[in-house]
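Supplementary Note 3. Input sequence used for the single-chain structure prediction.
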Amino acid sequence: MTMRKSFLSLLVTLALISVGWAEAKLVPQLDRAKLPGRQVKVSAICIGFGGEHEAKLKQAIDHLHTAGKNGVDIACLPEEFAGTEAEPIPGPTTNTVAKLAKQYNMYVVCPIREQAGEKQYNTAVLIDRKGKVAGYYRKVFVFWGEGLHLSTEGVKVFETDFGRISILTCFDLNYPELWQKCDDLDVDIVLWPSAYGGGSPLNAMAILYHYYIVPVGAGNIIDITGKTCPDIEKPRPKQFIATLDLDRAFAHHDFNRKKVGKMLEEHKGEIEVERNLSEEDLAPWWLFKATKPGVSVRKLLKRYKIETLREYQHRSRKQINQARKEGKRI
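The predicted structure, written as discrete structure tokens, is reproduced below.
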């Protein structure tokens, strides 16, 4: 073998080793059918608002590669992450991001400044696993000085293959009616692309309405208990990944004690009470989660005719308001 062939052979070998190493680092997406509950992996990419378009888009692409290689189901970028030059949907930014969404079979929330005819909006575009635009949300409460038009479409719900999601943006945090609308729409996760961290109001919305919140200001992904998720992964600076179980469910003590006792007795080793009324937490709620693969808490609750806390609150609001309208007693 000549020196040249030996050298080429060495290069090929090193290339193959490099490819094998890269493949070994890939984390497969969750096989939900083999896991308890209904689990989804989310990524908050906290690279900030605005900046020079090409540089920020390149930064976002690098982060999306990281998210994809970590088996993420849905990644969220910040509002107007690649600058404030308006473009249509689809357009250059969404088309670029869509290629990554398709490559890694993941959803991506891609916020842009949208040019829609003569109007401009602060818009978060949802791109699906196939790289197609699945929908968009236009910011309802635009911040002073943005110079943008206001959404007339309001809060939306998007059906994904893992659950129901909504998107709210930055200054929207200050308006509880938007967060209640997400609750009315029965969403599992609210994604919150933002230029800042948000802080404790986000925690309050999560516990009040029993959904997860994925903020991209500071990456403090929030559990349905209102606390920051305990097991957040940080594969690189400015990216935060968490696995959320969308099957976990609260139920109220009202009218449910006997039914819950029966369910727990008949399904030992399959579900557990994660949280209950205590001196530390005076809310009279159970929080259930599945512990056996293939088991769903929410399906069991339906089987035992136990309303989730959200269902109980929604039904009570409707029936009590109807009684008020009719002048009846409760």
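The first strand starts at residue 39 and ends at 45. The helical segments are 3-25, 53-69, 92-104, 176-184, 200-209, 257-266, 297-303, 309-326.
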